[in-house]
Structures are given as structure tokens and as C-alpha cells.
Task: structure prediction
Amino acid sequence: MKSSKTKSHNGAHHNGMSKTKKSAVKTKSNAAEGLRDLFEDELKDIYWAEKALTKALPKMAKNATTQELINALEEHLEVTKGHVERCEQAFELMEKPAQAKKCEAMSGLIKEAEEIMQSTEQGVVRDAGIISAAQKVEHYEIASYGTLCAFAKTIGENEVADLLEQTLNEEREADETLSRIAESSINAEANDEDEDENELEDVNSNKTATAKKK
Ligand SMILES: [Fe+2]
Ligand SMILES: [Fe+2]
Result:
């Protein structure tokens, strides 16, 4: 068999500048490196998104009417500030500078939320629109953090994965809270409001049932 001490390959050994092509053997570690890069890139993306949300959520809360929704948005604002911090901790754990990169998707979702708020009358209909926009945001975050957690585990960053999983759970909670608020009152009231406009009268006559006594 060939001795391992023979000349390597026929590539010339120039001084410095020549970069030899990476051989196929390296594919695997390149792929791992690629996933790490992708992870870092997506972390920068969600970091930007979280920071943008700390500005968008107060506007949404200010535009909302239903107290339960206002509370939920304000509460999620505080939680979101924690998400920003967790992103920073994740960068720190990976010994990388915390860097934000504009997330076009979140930018678009926030823009949509603003459009909804502008195109609806303040009240339950706008509230329903705010919930719809906020849930799209949460779903984007859930998808992002789900992926980030999976990537972090794959590249062996378990501490980072645990950290981001906490955020993932909080996004899920926020999504559920918004669903509950929408289903418990706002959607039905928003629908009633539409019916009010269409039928003008007769809606309040339903209230007689509430006076029922044993
Ligand atoms: Fe978040
Ligand atoms: Fe969120």
C-alpha cells in the first residue's frame, strides 16, 4: 500500500496566496459549518424582529379597546423585552457579537398590522384585526424559534437551545391567549357590530334572556 509519507497531491505549494480547492472529504464539516452560519443568520433575523416588536406592541395596545386585549399586549411587550435579552444571551454563549439583521418578514407583518389599524374604526372590529395581526406575528415567531431550537441542538449548542425554547413556549402562550380573547368575546362582538349596522335595530332584544331567574 501507499505510504502516507509520500508527496501529498500534485498541487503546487505557492507562497501564501494560493488557496487550494477544498476536497470532497470536507463536505461534511462544511455542511456543519453552513448550518452554524445559517443558525447565526437566523438568530440575527429574530433579534431584529424582537426589537422591532418592542416598538410595535405598544402601538397595538394603544389602538386596542378591549381591556383584556390591552392587558395581553402590554404583558407580551414585557415578555418580548425578555426575548430580546435572550437573543443577546444566545449570542454571548456563542461568543458572537449581538447583531441584528433586518427581518423583511417581520417588517411586513408589522406594516400589515399598521394598515389594519388605519383601515378600521376603533372598537371591537379593530381589536379583531389587531388580534389577527398579532397572531400572525406569533406564528412567525413560533416557526422561527422552532427552527432555531432544532438547529441549536443539531450544532451542539444545547444551552442556547434551552434558552430559545423558553421563548418558544412564551410565544405559544401568547398565541393561545390571543385565541382565547378572540373567541371569548371580540369576534362575536365585532360580528354583532356589523349586524347592528346592517339591521339597525332588533339586536338588543336578545338581552331579555339574561334576566332569567329560578
Ligand atoms: Fe418574541
Ligand atoms: Fe411574540
Summary: The two ends are 98 Å apart (CA to CA). Residues 34-197 form a domain with the Ferritin fold (CATH 1.20.1260.10). The pocket of fe (ii) ion (ligand 1) is lined by residues 50, 80, 83, 141, 167, 171 (CB under 6 Å).
